[in-house]
Amino acid sequence: MLTQTLSPVQKNVSIIPANPQALRGSTRKKKLRVAAYCRVSTDQEEQQSSYQAQIDYYTAKINGNKDWALAGIFADEGITGTSAKKRTEFLKLMKLCEKGKVDLVLTKSISRFSRNTLDCLGYIRKLKEKGIPIIFEKECINTMQMASEMTISLLGSFAQAESESISKNVTWGKRQSFKNGNVTFQYSRFLGYEKGEDGKPKIVPEEAVIVKRIFQSYLSGYSIVKIKEELESEGISSGTGKKVWSTNAIRYMLRNEKYIGDALLQKTYVTDFLTKKSKKNQGEIPQYYVTGNHEGIISKELFNLVQEEIARRASKRKVSQKATKTEQGKYSSKYALSELLVCGGCGVRYRRVTWARNGKKKIVWRCINRLEYGTKYCKESPTIEEYSLQDAIMKAICDAVKDKDELIDTLKHSLRVALNAEDDTVDSATIQTRIEELDSVMMDLVELNSRSSASADYFDQKFKEISDERTSLQGRLRDHEQRQIITQNNSARMRELFEILEKANFSLDEYDEALVKQLISKVTVVSAEKIQITFKGGLEVEQGL
Predict the structure, then answer these.
(1) Which residues contact 294 (CB under 8 A, 6 or more apart)?
(2) Listed residues 312, 327, 362: the one ending a domain
(3) Which among 412, 417, 396, 422 is positioned nearest to 506, based on CA atoms?
(4) Which of 209-213, 241-245, 314-318 has the lowest mean pLDDT?
(5) Are 229 and 273 part of one and the same domain?
C-alpha cells in the first residue's frame, strides 16, 4: 500500500488594480432633480403676492442652473406651518422624496418648512437617510453638511416659539374682540340670516319661516329625526343649501342663542397651538354674552321653552337595569302618551304594549315598573286599553273647552296671580348696590389691616361678617332671578295655550296626537276607572274611563 504525503498549501493574495479610465468615458454627469417648497400662512393680499413671488423665484432659480432639473414647485397657500397633516403639497413632496424622485430640496427658511421642531427634525432625518439634502436659504444651512443636529434643533425651536407667539397674539386679539362684544357670523351656513348693508345680520324672511317651524315643531313634541324627515320630504334646503339635513345641525339650531338676537362668545378655545385642537369651554376661560346684538327670529320665551324641553328629554332616568329597550330616558315622539302617561302608584311612565289573545290583537298601556318587575316595585297599576284612554282624554279636552272664552279668562286670571305672587319685596338693584358697598368696605379693611396694629382676630371677624352678608345677598339675588325665569316660562306656556285655544276647533270626533301634545302636560292613572289630566296652563281635571 502506497502512502502519499501532501505538502502544506500556501495562501497567496493577488491585487487587481483599479482602472478608473475604463469607466470615465462611459459616465455622464447626471443632473440633480431639485424641488422647492413654499408656504404663506395667511390669505391677506400682501401674503398672496409673497406666495406667488416665492413660486416664481424658485422656478427661475432651478431652471437657471444647468446642473439642476426641476422636480417640481410645491406650495401650500394660507396653511398652518405647525402641522404637516394639513399641508397637502408638503406631503406630496415628501412622498416623491421617499420614491427617490428628488435629489435636493430648496426652501426659504426653517419657519417656512415647519414651525414644529419635532416635525422639522423628523423630516430632515428621513431625507438625510436617503441622501437628500435640504437647503434653508435664509439660515445658509445644508442638512447634509451639518456635523450635528444641534443647530437645526435650535433654529427649529426658535421657529416653533415664533409660531407660538403668533398664535398667542391671534388668540389675544380674538379674546379682546370677544370682550368688546364683537360677534362674527358664518353666513354661508347660517339659516335665517344674511349680511346686511351695514355689516350686521339681516333676517332672510323665507328662511326665518323654516327656523320658526323647527322650533315650534320641537316644542310640539316632534323628535329631531322627525323634523329632519319632514324637511327633507318637502325638499326644503338646509343652511348649507343642501336638501339633506343633519340632525346635529338641527340640534345646534335649537340651542343657538343667535336666533333670539343674542350671542355667546368663546364657546370653545384652542388647547394646543401645534395641533390646533379645540375644546368646549366649560368655565376654563371667560365667556361673554352679548344681548341685543341683532334682530331675533325667535322670541326669548319660545327659546327658553325649547331649552327646557331639551333638558327634560335629556334628563330622563333609566328605569330598567335589564338588557331590554325599556327606558324612561328614551324620548318617543311617535305616541304622545309615551311622554305624558304616568302611574299614580309609583310615578313611572306607562308603555304601549300589544297583547295577542285567541288570535286577536289589542293595544294596551302598562306601567313600566310593573311590566319589568311585576309587583316588586308597583302593586297598584292597572292595565288600560288604548281606545278607552284616548276617548277619555278627548272627552276631557272637549268638556274643558266647551266654553273656551271662560276657560281663557280663568287661565289669564291664574297667570296674573302667578305674576303677582312673585316676591316684590326683592329689589335686585338695591341688593346689587349693597353688594358693591360691601366690596368697598372690604377693600378699606384690607388697606387698614396693612397699616393698623390692631389684632388679626378683629379683622378676621370683620371680614367674616362682610363675607357672610355678601354671600346671603348673592343667594337672594340668584333665587330672585331664578323665580323670574320660572315665572316667565310659565307665562310663555300660558300664552301658547291661549293661542291654541283661540285658534282651535274642538268639535273633534277622533283622537288627535298633535293636539294632545300641545294642550296636555301630564296624564296620571289614578285607578282602573279614572285618570287625572293636567293641562299646560295648570288646569287639572279628573276623567272617567
Answers:
(1) 183, 193, 200, 201, 258, 261
(2) 312
(3) 396
(4) 314-318
(5) yes
> In this structure, are residues 323 and 372 in contact, taking their beta carbons and an 8 Å threshold?
no
Q: Which residues pair with 524 in a beta bridge?
A: 342, 532
Q: What is the largest CA-CA distance in the chain?
A: 144
> If you search the block for the grid coordinates 394639513, which residue do you land on?
86
Q: How far is Cα of residue 122 from the mean position of the Cα atoms in its chain?
A: 34
In what order do the strands lie in the sheet containing 68-77? 68-77, 32-40, 104-107, 134-136, 141-142
- Residue 193 to residue 216: CA distance in whole angstroms: 19
Task: Tell me, yes or no, whether 254 and 371 share the same domain.
Answer: no
- The single residue listed with the C-alpha cell 427617490 is 100
Structural contact between residues 174 and 138, judged by C-beta atoms closer than 8 angstroms: no
pLDDT higher for 63 or 275? 63
- Amino acid code (one letter) for 2: L
What percentage of the chain exceeds 90 in pLDDT? 19
Instruction: Give percent above pLDDT 70 in the chain.
Output: 65
Q: Are residues 219 and 288 in the same domain?
A: yes
- All 3 cell numbers of residue 493? 306656556
C-alpha distances in angstroms, 409 versus 87, 506, 540?
A: 67, 18, 16
What string of H, E and C letters represents the secondary structure of 349-387?
EEEEEEEEECCEEEEEEEEHHHHHHCCCCCCCCCCEEHH
Question: What is the grid cell recorded at 98?
Answer: 421617499
